[in-house]
Amino acid sequence: MGRTIASITQTWLQEEAALKRFERALRKDDQLLLEELLVLSRQHLAEASYASNLYPLDMYLIAILLEVYKELKALQRQVAQAEASTDPQVQLNSGKEARFLQLLNETLESLAPQEVPQPEAESLQQVVQPDPAISISYTSFEEAP
Description:
Blueprint: H1 8-25, H2 28-42, H3 45-48, H4 56-84, H5 88-111, H6 121-125, H7 139-142
Helix pairs in contact: 1-2, 2-4
């Protein structure tokens, strides 16, 4: 005599097999993400056996959501700790630095000449004439082996 109800592990394997075609249709990076999510859901197989009134896929989705939510809360705690541990003196110094840079930029702008003088037209027309005594020849390069 055997069991009449499949175990949660057997049910999971059936669901995983059903998802294989979907997984193959995804892009490679999405396939990796889906595999990570499936691994997250496997962490709660024992707990899922107590929720026999739910559909198997629903149990897996809830397990995935639970793991993702735990990661989100851990990251939120890390951000809150980082914000709380910020030294007020550091915040004050960064405010002073920003004000210093603003004043420095304003000073440089006020000291900079407002109008750039244009060169005279005569100096633009002056062209340097080559010295006829100096001859440039590429023949020595052309004769090279």
